Amino acid sequence: MDTRRLYSFIKIIDAGSITRAADILHIAQPALSQQLSALEAQFGQQLVIRSKRGVAPTEAGRALYRHAQLILRQVDLAHAAVRVSGRTPAGSVSVGLAPYSLGAALALPLLKTVRERYPEILLHVNENFGGVISEAIMTGRMDMAFIYGAGPLRGVQFEHLRTEDLFLIGARDGTRDPHGTAVSLRELERVPLLLPSRIHTVRQVVDAAFHQLALEPNVVGEVESALTLVNAVEARLGATVLPGSAARAILDVRSLSVRRIVDPVIQVKLSMVTSDIQPLSEPALAVHDVFLELVRAFHDDPLDADPVDDKNEQ
Description:
By secondary structure, this protein is of the alpha/beta class. It contains eleven helices and twelve strands. The strands form three sheets. Strands 3, 4, 5, 6, 7, 10, 11 and 12 form an eight-stranded mixed β-sheet that branches. Strands 1-2 form a two-stranded antiparallel sheet. Helix 1 crosses helix 2. The longest helix is centred in the first third of the chain and has 25 residues, at 59-83. The protein starts with a helix and ends in a 17-residue tail after the last helix.
């Protein structure tokens, strides 16, 4: 198997055109067409459908596209492993951190600790990953992700790390809304809420809890930006519902009302997700272990002191 042909095939599918892929690869279009024809002859299948608008993968082409990404990823890992053999871990590692989660609190400590311990690792932290997380990990575009949920998902394995309670966070309202007291879900029905959209697990868990009591949340805005959410809550445009760790990471909880939701208590599960097809590379395994250290050192109650201090990072 000529890996160069696989690389060219991926570029053709990504570009949606043999002409555009040839420009990207800086090779002649006829030569690229020959590589594609050679692949189709090797597999005995038509891999793309050609039209005036470009090319689109067939079912066989989509299957090869997925496997080609895995194969080239493994080749890159092999080169990296040989290159750094006997040295400290080095290479690129991509970590996805779910928005409005403990990941927001640990992003900076993770960057700091990895930089101190493994200066040759280039860490890519993504808090705004889109699409299907299992596909990103299966194709090697992401090494691991810290997300809500406990699985199962095809192609990935879940490592459950912690369960967090949800809190109502909003502007203080004098003595009627004392800091640290609990609030029932029925009381919450009257509160104007700023929540993420329904694609987020936090929103899904909140909606499900209301539904179980035949209640309807008073959602006055759907906010995807953490910065906008902070400004909106502090401007008294509404309250929000977050895990304690996320609240501490993005909000000044000392100046806000933070109340644990009860009757019922609402919880979300946080898990580390990795591929169940390919093992973590040496640098990715090092980052994985650092992340687990930071998770274990973190206290999730937003009324506690500072989240992760220097002594926990050593």
